[in-house]
Amino acid sequence: MSGKAQGSSIVEDPGIPLVGKGGSMNGSSYGSSVGEQPKTYKYENVGARLARRKELFVRRKLIADLSLFFAMLGIVLMIVETELCMANVFNKGQPGSIIVKSLISITTAILLGFITWYHYLDIKVFMIDNSIDDWRLAITMSRGFHLALELLVCAVHPIPGQHEVQMLVYDDTKRVRLLQVIPIDVIFSLPMFLRFYLVCRVMMLHSRLYQDASSQSLGALNRIHFNFRFIFKSLMNLYPEYVLTVMALFLFIWASWAVRACEMYHGQEHRNFLNSMWMTAITFLTVGYGDIVPASYCGRGIAVLTGLFGTGVTALVVAVLARKLELSRAEKYVHNFVIDIELDKQVKHAAANILKEGWLSYKYKKAGNTGKTLKHQRRLLHSIHRIRDLRGDQKRLADSSVSLTEMHRNQAFMMTSLTTVQSRSREMESRLARIEDKLDRLLQQSRA
């Protein structure tokens, strides 16, 4: 054995690299000697998987942002082309309209590519989360249906060129149905607004709850899925006024423009955007004066949807106002405390009246005054009923002020306090026992 310590020939590799510092376990060795052939592993280790998952999350969020950008760009181009045609700047067959609708087709094709890419990254994330290698295991009927539905919704857009279709409309008397020729772009333009579902996806991916790893872990333990429904509920709980305002404004503006686009070729009253906004407002608020009505089935369908959305938003507004007008926990405690003091005073006053009226009725009964005796006996009965009612009010107040959650919290606090007192009493007993032992030793030493 030499005097100098030689290095060990065993190289230890934990097989869990730092996140982002390398992915594959291929080439790593577990306790292999120098010069031996390193062992190869089929699967990546935990650190590499976490690094790849984080990278895929970032790329997926970027792809979702780009999808939303091209979706909104297509909608803006569609609105611009429709408004220019309504203003007679050019018609559907002129080069200006064809160029703008060709740009819409290009943005739609790019959007479809990004949507397919997003689902590809989503499948990769699913494979990492479930530790699977074969991508076919991640393809389910539900995932395929969602992908096909998204591609179908986002593929609808106005076709370049001048194409027309006949639609049934009513005349000015609202009794005779007529066939009128309208551009087919009206049918293909309105479904483009369904692309706004991408806003929900982007909101979910950019949400702090979705990006936080601790929130994801807590949700997994409680079997909570961090989807848009959960994010929307949290936003409604935190900022109900802003969410409802944005929803109502978006639905109002969309419905007004959609009614104008449907009714543009059936009369002059809807060429003014303010008239369409007026009809949408009275339909949204379920008033319905009837001074402006849609003539086409397209406009009537938009009116029906507007009424349904208005009813839902109104119900949400009522629920939010009811929750805002509800007393908070601290305000409820103060209110119940004040009411309890007032009820206690009234109970004491009613008890004093019972004694007073009982004494006066006895007094006048002994004196033979029947009229005053009956008068004070009625007051005595009234005081007895009054104190019973006050006792009932106090009981109901106590039941409403103490909930099951508060009872459980108070019970837990009492149990904690009792445990603390018991531990301190045992500690005190041990100290007293040690003091007695010391006193006994001192007595023995003094006697010796």
UniProtKB/TrEMBL annotation:
Membrane topology (UniProt): Multi-pass membrane protein
Coarse class of the protein's main subcellular location: membrane
Transmembrane regions listed in the UniProt entry: 62-80, 100-121, 178-198, 242-261, 273-290, 302-322
Coiled-coil region(s): 418-445
Any Pfam family hit: CaMBD
Assigned GO CC terms: membrane
InterPro entries: CaM-bd_dom (IPR004178), CaM-bd_dom_sf (IPR036122), K_chnl_Ca-activ_SK (IPR015449), K_chnl_dom (IPR013099)
Cellular localization per UniProt: Membrane
Protein's UniProt keywords contain Hydrolase: no
Span list, region Disordered: 1-23
Keyword Membrane set for record: yes
Keyword tags: Coiled coil, Ion channel, Ion transport, Membrane, Transmembrane, Transmembrane helix, Transport
GO molecular function, a single term: calmodulin binding
Boundaries of every Calmodulin-binding domain copy: 340-410
SMART domains: CaMBD (SM01053)
Protein name: CaMBD domain-containing protein
Biological source species: Macrostomum lignano
Top-level taxonomy: Eukaryota, Metazoa, Spiralia, Lophotrochozoa, Platyhelminthes
